[in-house]
Specification:
This protein has one domain. Helix 3 runs antiparallel to helix 4. The chain is built from four helices and no strands. It starts with 10 loop residues before the first helix and ends with a helix. The longest helix has 33 residues. The protein is mainly alpha-helical.
Length: 135
Protein backbone atom coordinates (compact mmCIF):
# COMPACT_ATOMS: atom_id res chain seq x y z
CA UNK A 1 0.00 0.00 0.00
CA UNK A 2 1.58 3.18 -1.18
CA UNK A 3 0.77 6.40 0.56
CA UNK A 4 -0.58 9.21 -1.54
CA UNK A 5 1.73 12.22 -1.37
CA UNK A 6 0.46 15.31 0.38
CA UNK A 7 -0.49 17.94 -2.20
CA UNK A 8 1.68 21.03 -2.42
CA UNK A 9 0.14 24.42 -1.59
CA UNK A 10 -0.72 26.80 -4.41
CA UNK A 11 1.90 29.29 -5.56
CA UNK A 12 -0.50 32.14 -4.74
CA UNK A 13 -0.54 30.89 -1.14
CA UNK A 14 3.24 30.47 -0.98
CA UNK A 15 4.40 33.80 -2.47
CA UNK A 16 3.29 36.16 0.34
CA UNK A 17 4.65 33.75 2.94
CA UNK A 18 7.98 33.59 1.13
CA UNK A 19 8.23 37.39 1.12
CA UNK A 20 7.31 37.69 4.79
CA UNK A 21 9.61 34.91 6.02
CA UNK A 22 12.53 36.24 3.95
CA UNK A 23 11.97 39.77 5.27
CA UNK A 24 11.82 38.50 8.87
CA UNK A 25 14.95 36.42 8.42
CA UNK A 26 16.87 39.37 6.97
CA UNK A 27 15.70 41.70 9.74
CA UNK A 28 16.67 39.12 12.38
CA UNK A 29 20.01 38.50 10.67
CA UNK A 30 20.94 42.19 10.63
CA UNK A 31 19.60 42.68 14.16
CA UNK A 32 21.90 39.91 15.38
CA UNK A 33 24.87 41.46 13.57
CA UNK A 34 24.14 44.89 15.03
CA UNK A 35 23.56 43.50 18.53
CA UNK A 36 26.90 41.67 18.53
CA UNK A 37 28.70 44.69 17.11
CA UNK A 38 27.24 47.19 19.59
CA UNK A 39 27.65 44.89 22.57
CA UNK A 40 31.29 44.10 21.89
CA UNK A 41 32.28 47.65 21.01
CA UNK A 42 30.38 49.54 23.70
CA UNK A 43 29.46 47.30 26.63
CA UNK A 44 31.47 44.06 26.78
CA UNK A 45 34.25 43.64 29.30
CA UNK A 46 36.79 41.75 27.20
CA UNK A 47 39.42 41.48 29.97
CA UNK A 48 42.20 42.87 27.80
CA UNK A 49 41.33 41.02 24.60
CA UNK A 50 41.36 42.98 21.38
CA UNK A 51 37.90 43.99 20.25
CA UNK A 52 38.54 43.24 16.58
CA UNK A 53 39.61 39.66 17.40
CA UNK A 54 36.47 38.97 19.42
CA UNK A 55 34.29 40.59 16.78
CA UNK A 56 35.88 38.66 13.94
CA UNK A 57 35.38 35.35 15.75
CA UNK A 58 31.75 36.14 16.56
CA UNK A 59 30.79 37.69 13.23
CA UNK A 60 32.64 35.38 10.82
CA UNK A 61 29.97 32.63 10.71
CA UNK A 62 27.26 35.22 10.02
CA UNK A 63 29.31 37.02 7.40
CA UNK A 64 29.91 33.76 5.55
CA UNK A 65 26.14 33.33 5.25
CA UNK A 66 25.42 36.95 4.29
CA UNK A 67 25.76 36.67 0.48
CA UNK A 68 23.40 33.70 0.27
CA UNK A 69 20.85 35.25 2.61
CA UNK A 70 20.88 38.53 0.71
CA UNK A 71 20.33 36.70 -2.58
CA UNK A 72 17.46 34.64 -1.16
CA UNK A 73 19.22 31.29 -1.49
CA UNK A 74 17.19 28.59 0.27
CA UNK A 75 20.29 26.54 1.12
CA UNK A 76 21.90 29.55 2.80
CA UNK A 77 18.76 29.96 4.88
CA UNK A 78 18.94 26.28 5.80
CA UNK A 79 22.58 26.67 6.85
CA UNK A 80 21.60 29.74 8.86
CA UNK A 81 19.34 27.47 10.92
CA UNK A 82 22.40 25.44 11.90
CA UNK A 83 24.74 28.37 12.50
CA UNK A 84 22.29 30.41 14.55
CA UNK A 85 22.27 27.71 17.22
CA UNK A 86 25.71 28.94 18.29
CA UNK A 87 24.25 32.35 19.04
CA UNK A 88 21.23 30.85 20.78
CA UNK A 89 23.52 28.91 23.12
CA UNK A 90 25.66 32.00 23.72
CA UNK A 91 22.53 34.01 24.54
CA UNK A 92 21.19 31.43 26.99
CA UNK A 93 24.55 31.23 28.75
CA UNK A 94 24.75 35.04 28.89
CA UNK A 95 21.30 35.17 30.51
CA UNK A 96 22.76 33.44 33.58
CA UNK A 97 25.15 36.32 34.26
CA UNK A 98 23.24 39.30 35.73
CA UNK A 99 25.62 41.76 34.05
CA UNK A 100 24.83 40.30 30.61
CA UNK A 101 21.21 39.22 31.15
CA UNK A 102 19.70 41.82 28.81
CA UNK A 103 22.22 41.04 26.07
CA UNK A 104 21.57 37.33 26.50
CA UNK A 105 17.82 37.74 26.34
CA UNK A 106 18.03 39.86 23.21
CA UNK A 107 20.44 37.47 21.54
CA UNK A 108 18.22 34.49 22.39
CA UNK A 109 15.05 36.12 21.07
CA UNK A 110 16.73 37.32 17.87
CA UNK A 111 18.35 33.94 17.21
CA UNK A 112 15.03 32.11 17.72
CA UNK A 113 13.38 34.57 15.35
CA UNK A 114 16.09 34.01 12.74
CA UNK A 115 15.87 30.24 13.14
CA UNK A 116 12.09 30.11 12.70
CA UNK A 117 11.90 32.54 9.80
CA UNK A 118 14.83 30.93 7.93
CA UNK A 119 13.33 27.48 8.47
CA UNK A 120 9.95 28.58 7.12
CA UNK A 121 11.58 30.33 4.16
CA UNK A 122 13.53 27.18 3.30
CA UNK A 123 10.44 24.96 3.47
CA UNK A 124 8.25 27.28 1.45
CA UNK A 125 10.98 28.04 -1.13
CA UNK A 126 11.48 24.33 -1.86
CA UNK A 127 7.70 23.78 -2.01
CA UNK A 128 7.36 26.71 -4.41
CA UNK A 129 10.21 25.41 -6.57
CA UNK A 130 8.63 21.96 -6.73
CA UNK A 131 5.25 23.46 -7.62
CA UNK A 132 6.78 25.64 -10.35
CA UNK A 133 8.56 22.60 -11.78
CA UNK A 134 5.19 20.98 -12.36
CA UNK A 135 4.98 18.58 -9.44
Amino acid sequence: MAKTPKPLPAVEWLNPRLKLSRALSLVSFFALLVLLLIWNVAFADLHGARTWVVLSIQLLPLLLLAPGLLLGNARAHAWACFVVNIYFIQGVVACIDPARALFGALETVISVSLFCSALLYTRWRFQCDRKMAGE
